[in-house]
Amino acid sequence: MKKVFLCAMCAAALAACTNGPSKKEQALTEERDSLMQVISDKDTELNEIMGTVNEVQEGFRRINEAEGRITVTDAGVESEAAKQSIRENMQFIQDAMAQNREKIKQLQEKLRTSSVGGEKLKKMVDDLTAQLEEQKLKVQELEAKLAEKDIVIAQQGEAITALNENVNALSEENKAKSQTVADQDKQIHTAWYVFGTKSELKEQKILQKGDVLKSDDFNQDYFTKVDIRYDKEIKLYSKSAKLLTNHPAGSYKLEKDKEGKYVLHITDPDTFWSVSKYLVIQVR
Predict the structure, then answer these.
(1) Count of beta carbons in the 10 Å neighbourhood of residue 175
(2) How does DSSP assign 31-97, residue by residue?
(3) Strands across the sheet with 190-196, in order?
(4) Would residue 155 be called left, alpha or beta, if left means φ above 0 and alpha means ψ between -120 and 50 degrees?
(5) Gap between the Cα atoms of 270 and 49, Å rounded
């Protein structure tokens, strides 16, 4: 009997081993593999971005070297060989700046759709754009010096002008995007408040039949606009004050000043304005 029992136990153990991992183990394995893939994708994306940044910086280094090879003295450039060297270096600078401009545009597009974008990367791209603008001005100065010495750079004029126009357009585009971001940021952090007596609030249709802001026909101009990041104190100039809109307890304090009049102190702005961006206070 003992042998029979041991044989049965061994068979059960063998069956458990051959059945493979459990569903829970399989789920954990799949979740781990999925997470590792996400990490790998982000690493690849970041490496691509930083690789392009390095290429742009290398382009600037080579441009600076080419500019250093162009020497324009007061005596001018006598030999045709010297003039040809200048032409070749100017052509190289033009091509390198065009490549850098295109790479910076690619970086901006990557950051716009990237899941690893951040303020530091955006600042880095903005700095590269500013550096390209500075390089454009240096090329213009160099071109002016060459013109003074009657050194004509063949097929350069229109190309450099077009490049400058593209850089200017890129700069304006960046300014517009920055303004859009600033406007959106300001809008996100904007709120409105009003305080008044019961009759005043009724007159402005802010309070109707005991309900506050239940319709859209209230007088928006009666409210005061604030930036929730900075405006954290509202003087109410009244010895009686009651909040009519909902704002989480613990995110504000109603305290009296030396004259016994209430002042609203917003101690936790994000929480206070999380329910509503409108604040209505009834005073007497």
Answers:
(1) 10
(2) HHHHHHHHHHHHHHHHHHHHHHHHHHHHHHHHHHHHHHH----TT---SHHHHHHHHHHHHHHHHHH
(3) 224-227, 190-196, 278-283, 241-243
(4) left
(5) 34
Neighbours of 219 (CB within 10 A): 12
Q: State the chain's mean pLDDT as an integer.
A: 78
- Residue 171: both structure tokens together: 């700069």
Report which DSSP code applies to 215: S
- The secondary structure of 239-263 as a DSSP string is S-EEE-S---TTSEEEEE-TTS-EE
Instruction: Please report, as a single letter, which amino acid is at residue 143.
Output: E
Q: Who's near 123: CB < 8 A, 6+ residues apart?
A: none
Is pLDDT of 256 > 90? yes
**The overall pTM is greater than 0.90:** no
Q: What is the rounded CA–CA span in Å between residue 133 and residue 174? A: 12
- Can you count the helices (H) and strands (E) in the chain? 7, 9
Query: Which residues neighbour 97 within 8 Å (Cβ) at sequence distance 6 or greater?
Result: 59, 63, 132, 135, 136, 139, 163
10 Å Cβ neighbour count for 266?
Answer: 22
